[in-house]
Each structure stands twice: as structure tokens, then as C-alpha cells.
Design brief:
single chain, about 325 residues, Glutaredoxin, three-stranded antiparallel beta sheet, 13 helices, flat
């Protein structure tokens, strides 16, 4: 009878009372195993999203397998002075394209085993290039160390073409300068052709979607309706005909913003983007940027200035057209 009540399980003799305990132990082991798997999966997910997919490590571009990350982009942008820095942030793809070319040239320099010559006591810290740029400069120097040939026929043809601009000087006198000019032009063409071929042969991927996400909005400019309303508003008006892509125009923006606040109710200070409103640029014959036009209270043009003006000179002009402080 005792043998009938006993069972063999896995080669081990058990009693009916032992079975529930073993089932509980198995369930506990399975639970611990699942818990361990869950912890591993969570850890892997956190590593992926918090480290590998952290914004600073996201690739804006890949150059022959080498990434240009957001962190690298921000590091390079921080070296750019304003207003160019803001302009880069507004159109980051242009700057990334420059970083792509820099990466390609660095890759080529390393393939060639190029190294930067050791600095001497004659070198100053002020003149020193950053390591990457110094390596590129040394690579390009060696790559194009042989000056292109310039023939006498080319010099004569250039002289004949621009003889009127030579100030009556004979070919013999200006030939050395023309030879140097033509040689520099040819070398520039060689460099541009090399960089174009290098770019075309490279495996480059640009993440345009990600670039659009990090792009900041350009500063607002006034509309054509606001311009017309200001001219008919019975107050003097200053209009800066410029563009967001114009560096002197951007340098003036903080000054114009200050003046706009200081002269609230006394004068209208406007900024017109000539690329958005080409009809206005044509109507007012805008040739160079920025062009500042001052209008009197009747909306009549009384003065214009081509180029940037500092705050003091703008204030002086506004006083001339009857704007009180």
C-alpha cells in the first residue's frame, strides 16, 4: 500500500504532500525569470532612448559612415559670432553641408597620413588654427603644392581682353602680375573641382527632417500692408529695406527694435524684406542692402542712406525730419 501511495517524479520518490510545494517553487522561479527579463528589456530601452537616441547623439548627417551629431553641430555653431550664429540656426542645412565637406577633407587627410608640423617659437597662439582646420590646411597645401602652368598665350589673351583696364601699361610691364592672377584663378578652379568630385564620390546622408526640427524661425519683418498704413499714418517713417540673409541688415535689427520702442507714437520704424516684397524694392529702386529711407509725416521720401547706420546717426536723421524725442 505504501508503494501505491508513492510516485516517481524525475527519478525522485515523492509523496502527494510534496507536489503542491514543488509547483509553488516552479512558479516562483518562472516569476523571477520573467522579472529578470523585464528588467533587462527596460534597461535596454532606457539605454537606447536616453543614451543612443539622446538629442545630442542624433545624427544630422552621415559621411562615409561617420556621424555628424547634434552635439557637434551645436559645438561648431557656438564658435560663430552673431548675427551669423542666428542665421546659421535659421538655415542649419547650409552649415551642415560645410561640416560635411570638412569631414570629407579630414577623412582624406587621415588616409594620406598627413600630420601638422610642430609649432615653433615663431608661431603665435593668435595665428594658430584649431587642430582639425590645421590638418585640412596642411592636406590642401600638399595636395595642391604644384602650381598650375600659365602660358604666354594665356597672358596675352587676358591682356587683350582687359587692355582698357590696364591704364595704358604695356604687356611686358603687367605680365608678371597677370601671370600670378591667372595662376591663382586656375588653382582655385582645381580646388573647386576636387571638392566637387570628392563630394559626389562620398556616401553622404542628410537628415533633412531632423534639420527642420532644430531650425529656429527667422526674425519677423513688416508686411506691405503695414508699410502702406504707416505712410498714411500722419507720422514720420523710417524703413529699412533689407533681408534676413544680409549681415549688415541683421546687425542693425537690435538698433531698429530699440528705436521702435523709444519712438512709439512719434514715428514708425519698419523693416521690409526685399525678397518677400520685390515689388516694393522695385518701386523704391533698391539696389544695395540695407537701404534706409526716411519719410516725412505726409509719406514723402525726404532722405535715404545706403548701408548700415549706427543709432546716433539714425536719431539725428529722425530729428531732421521732425521727430521729437
Amino acid at each position: 500500500m505504501e508503494q501505491e501511495d508513492q510516485k516517481l517524479e524525475g527519478g525522485v520518490q515523492t509523496t502527494p504532500q510534496d507536489v503542491p510545494l514543488q509547483k509553488k517553487t516552479s512558479k516562483r522561479k518562472i516569476g523571477m525569470l520573467l522579472g529578470s527579463v523585464f528588467v533587462v528589456l527596460v534597461g535596454a530601452a532606457l539605454f537606447y532612448f536616453l543614451y543612443l537616441e539622446h538629442p545630442s547623439r542624433q545624427a544630422l548627417a552621415t559621411v562615409n559612415g561617420e556621424k555628424i551629431t547634434l552635439a557637434q553641430f551645436n559645438q561648431e555653431v557656438a564658435k560663430v559670432e552673431n548675427p551669423l550664429r542666428d542665421m546659421v540656426k535659421e538655415e542649419p542645412e547650409k552649415f551642415v553641408q560645410e561640416l560635411v565637406m570638412r569631414t570629407l577633407l579630414l577623412q582624406e587627410a587621415k588616409k594620406e597620413g598627413i600630420s601638422v608640423p610642430a609649432r615653433t617659437y615663431k608661431d603665435t597662439a593668435k595665428d594658430a588654427l584649431p587642430p582639425d582646420l590645421a590638418l585640412i590646411a596642411e592636406f590642401m597645401k600638399k595636395k595642391f603644392s604644384t602650381p598650375p602652368e600659365v602660358t604666354q598665350d594665356e597672358i596675352k589673351a587676358f591682356y587683350d581682353l582687359f587692355k582698357a583696364q590696364m591704364g595704358g601699361k604695356p604687356l611686358k610691364e603687367v605680365a608678371p602680375a597677370l601671370e600670378q592672377l591667372l595662376r591663382q584663378g586656375k588653382q582655385q578652379e582645381m580646388v573647386e573641382r576636387y571638392m566637387k568630385d570628392l563630394r559626389q564620390a562620398a556616401n553622404v546622408e542628410i537628415n533633412e527632417k531632423r534639420l527642420k526640427k532644430i531650425a529656429i524661425a527667422p526674425p519677423d519683418s513688416n508686411t506691405e500692408d503695414e508699410f502702406k498704413k504707416a505712410l498714411g499714418g500722419g507720422k514720420p517713417v523710417l524703413v529699412d529695406f533689407g533681408a534676413n540673409s544680409c549681415v549688415p541688415c541683421r546687425e542693425m535689427r537690435p538698433v531698429l527694435n530699440e528705436l521702435g520702442k523709444e519712438y512709439t507714437g512719434k514715428a514708425s520704424i519698419l523693416v521690409i524684406d526685399v525678397y518677400k516684397y520685390q515689388n516694393l524694392a522695385k518701386d523704391y529702386q533698391i539696389q544695395l542692402l540695407p537701404t534706409l529711407i526716411f519719410f516725412d509725416a505726409k509719406g514723402k521720401e525726404v532722405s535715404r542712406h545706403v548701408g548700415a547706420l549706427d543709432k546716433e546717426k539714425i536719431v539725428s536723421k529722425l530729428k531732421e525730419i521732425g521727430v521729437g524725442t
